[in-house]
Amino acid sequence: MSFQGAYINKLNGGLRNGSETDRVICLICGMTLVGDLAYNTKYELLDINTVEDLGITTSSDSTNGELVYYHLSEMFRLSPETKFWLIPVNKTTTVAQLVEDDALIAAIRSIDDVNVLGIGGLSTMVAASLADAVLLQGLVDELAVEHLRIDGIIVEGVGAAVATGEGGYPDLRSITAPNISYVGGQDPAIAALNAAFAKRAGLGTVLGSVGVRKVHEDLGSVDIEEKPRSRRGEENYSLSNETLGRWLSAALSDGTAFKSLTKAEQKNLSAKGWIYVGSFADYPGFYLSGCPTAVDKSSDYAYFNFNCIWNKAARIIRRVLIPRVRSKVPTDPATGQIKSTWISGCEESVKNALQPMVSAGNIDESEIYINPVQVVNEDSPLRVKGKLVVGMVVHEFDVDLGLTNKL
User: What is the spatial distance between Cα 105 and Cα 143, in angstroms, rounded to a whole number?
Assistant: First the structure.
């Protein structure tokens, strides 16, 4: 025996175990290759300077009639502290070809913890096809089998795809593609720069709005919970920037001005599950309309942020349970049931792992339950039931206000 008492071992990595992987966002963009870029190859983007170093600039956008630099600049403008990824693809590629492209899928898989994809810049997007959304959902489902969980695919809804006016936009709520969202809003100032931009949508604006928010936040929130350093102290997180001339007005991607839409037309667009950009009367700035997905509104996963919450919890639970795989499950000799002490320990370990989601405001509480009356073997997995309590999102206020001469 000695008088050392206790050994303290220096560990590394604890500062990297926060929420940095909550958002790993990749833009898959149809584009003309510039510099040393190659199709179906991933590129890590740390800031807008990294983008320009690749040869992607406002000049290349203008020359090629593309909005690659614009999308990426919007992503970094709205979420400057986020690392993004880019995968260039041939802009003549169809969605059907994308989902079958082994090289592209391999590039997606190679991005550690990727969970949000944006797809835009394709010249083949001549129809806001509901069939395309179903194909993209198939890709999400295929990757999920490999435990690569994609929270959502945000798709550029090209205005040429639809009849003029909100009435021509297809009903995304009529299909079952709960991880797919379409952007149908554009910045008129950008659309006016080049005839090739006239029918394009603000995909980069939405991806930047994803990057800056916590997983539980609605993309249409007027304010956000944690602003970048450059905008702390502001009372909202508007898309508008007067200095850069961004989002000083808004339109649908077919050119229909937001200001021309009636209240009923706005509600119709929202009911059809489209993301667009608008403003509030008597309040400054422009904002996203929300984060609907292409599934019936009654679904638990009818909004992008609920998918993000579920996937984050699923990843955490998987990481907690894997170390217990092929380990002994003790039984109570008196009853033949799984020992209560083992069950409580397993339940507690999962709840503890989910606690950071409660602290971060992603969920309000969790419940984990394991039925002790189970037979567990190679053919019968141990059944675990979990529930996540999520908060509600206020979309409108209804205020009763009157005058009186006495309170």
Answer: 9
